[in-house]
Amino acid sequence: AISKPPIEHFFLKPCKQTNNNHHHPTSIPIIDLSKPESKHQLVKACQDFGFFKVINHQVPLQFINKLESKAIKFFNSPLSLKQKAGPPDPFGYGNKHLGQNGDFGWVEYLLLNLKHEPNHKNPTISVFEDNPEEFQCAVNDYVTAVKKMTCEILELLADELKLQSRNVFSKLLLDEQSDSVFRVNYYPPCPELQEHELTGKKLIGFGEHTDPQIISVLRSNNTSGLEILLKTGCWMSVPPDSTSFFINVGDSLQVMTNGRFKSVKHRVVANSLKSRLSMIYFGGPPLNEKIAPLPSLMESDEASLYKEFTWFEYKKSAFNSRLSDNRLGSFENN
Ligand code: GA4
Q: Is 166 labeled as catalytic in the residue annotation?
């Protein structure tokens, strides 16, 4: 049987509470993809925050809504059915337990492998759906459109960084062997939290972490919860926007840019009344891809901040870590 930790286990330590500075409000960069001139702001956002919001993205609303309603239907189904798709290994249905090392949060999720195995049914989906083809199709439509937008963004970034080929980053996601994953997180409301909220307590939905891949692309419903850690050490709550995408730089992109782009620490806090649903595409390179700072981005006397590693090595080390660990630490030079 799965153990049920008491609610106190999910509270965030008071010292890590969100502290929005009202005198110098920081706002999240908004990138309008219909204006290619915005690539300057795009680079700036990756350097200053490692995080930005994308509008006018061309991902059909119909794909978003279809997948969202299928996901809601899944999370609202009986636990016994959902558990057929679990426990996550790491793919499948997970409930409160995150990763393999004792992290937990007030969240349920589905983690799906996007690495295509020809003529192979996704084992996670086929166990809970009467009609797995339909669910798979909704995932494929959504992911294909989101991946296209993501590659456009990666190409704008490469362009603005004056890299020789604009596909240095995007080719990693477009590769047939790209090790990308898709995650749907469902944060159920926690009514028990209401009385605690009065005292400023917050419940962990998904503990603080950085993402190991190249880039992560998130779409959520209109329930708040996502917070990013600013350079000032303050957590900033990201106002939800169901019509936009939120993008963050992953550890691998931080390494490829020798630290110019920042892999942002983020977390999700749970809500007492409303459920939050988010869908995240994690764009990763092929397992055998060597990740290292791009020589063309380095000044002649610039030292590489990181040791070269393959995505396989980094991923293995990441999956053996705890959520809040500094995963890049052991790959730094000196
Ligand atoms: C964070 C980003 C992605 O969701 C993920 C997560 C993975 C998992 O859920 O299995 C990890 C986490 C994530 C980083 C540290 C390890 C591995 C849970 C965890 C405690 C799928 C990923 O690639 O890394």
A: no
DSSP secondary structure code for residue 97 in this structure: E
Instruction: Give the C-alpha separation, 218 to 132, whole Å.
Output: 23
How many angstroms separate the CA atoms of 79 and 62, rounded?
Answer: 28
> Among 256, 266, 240, which Cα is nearest to 306's?
256
Could you give the CA distance from residue 203 to residue 179 in angstroms, rounded to a whole number? 32
Digit-coded pLDDT (tens) for 4-55: 778 888 888 655 445 555 555 679 999 999 997 889 999 999 999 999 999 9
* DSSP states of 310-329: EHHHHHHHHHTS-TTS-TTG
Query: What is the Cβ-side half-sphere exposure of residue 12, based on CA atoms within 13 angstroms?
Result: 24
From the list 183, 260, 267, 276, the catalytic residue is 276
Residue 267 Cα to ligand 1 middle (Å): 12
CA 106 to CA 305: how far, in whole Å? Answer: 36
ipTM confidence? 0.99
> From ligand 1's centre to the CA of 187, what distance in Å?
17
- Token pair belonging to 203: 């419940």
Q: Model-level pTM?
A: 0.94
Q: Which residues, in sequence order, are CB contacts of 81 under 8 Å at separation 6+?
A: 128
d(CA 33, CA 95): 36
Task: Using the mean position of ligand 1's atoms as its centre, give its distance from the Cα of residue 302 in Å.
Answer: 31
Spatial distance between the Cα atoms of 107 and 123, rounded to a whole number of angstroms: 22
